[in-house]
Amino acid sequence: MGKITIIAAVADNNALGKDNDLLWHLPDDFKRFKQLTTGHKIIMGRKTFESFPKPLPNRHHIIITRDKGYHVEHPNCTIVHSLSDALALVENEDLSFVIGGGEIYSLAMPYCDILEVTRVHGDYEADAFFPEIDPSNWKLVREEYHGKDEKHAVDFTYRTFIKKEN
């Protein structure tokens, strides 16, 4: 089994989004997301998928939905009806990513090896939240601060966690 990484941009209060949209615009975080996920399978919930204008290029989308009639006409999209079905599709991959939303992150946390979290410094009103990162299960191994600038209205920190061996 390869490594499974959760990747997310998360506010200080664990806010992820509201009304199926992001709460901030961070071009450098988008670039990092693209750089890390390109060429890999990405697992997401239906609402996360539907928040994209079109499927993301150079990535195979595995979309989890309870709706048995849900269908997407695109060669880089596969529909499944459970997280276990999604994980079965990536078991032979070296690396794959879970990209949201809140419910999928909560379900996937026990199965993931790495967390790539962009911590957005601020508290936001939201309807989707990231699960708490339990320090007894996760070790922070890298941190890189990015201050506000002309393209970023808020400062943020890239944080990489690896699952502790229990």
Automatic annotation (TrEMBL):
User: Which pathway?
Assistant: Cofactor biosynthesis; tetrahydrofolate biosynthesis; 5,6,7,8-tetrahydrofolate from 7,8-dihydrofolate: step 1/1
List the Pfam families hit by this protein, alphabetically. DHFR_1 (PF00186)
Q: Which SUPFAM superfamilies match?
A: Dihydrofolate reductase-like (SSF53597)
Q: Which UniProt keywords apply?
A: NADP, One-carbon metabolism, Oxidoreductase
- Database matches in InterPro entries: DHFR, DHFR-like_dom_sf, DHFR_dom
Summarizing the function annotation, the protein's role is: Key enzyme in folate metabolism. Catalyzes an essential reaction for de novo glycine and purine synthesis, and for DNA precursor synthesis.
Q: What class of enzyme is it?
A: oxidoreductase
Q: What is its EC number?
A: 1.5.1.3
Q: Which reaction does it catalyse?
A: (6S)-5,6,7,8-tetrahydrofolate + NADP(+) = 7,8-dihydrofolate + NADPH + H(+)
What region holds the DHFR domain?
A: 3-163
Provide the family line. Belongs to the dihydrofolate reductase family.
Protein's name in the database: Dihydrofolate reductase
Instruction: Give the GO molecular function terms.
Output: dihydrofolate reductase activity
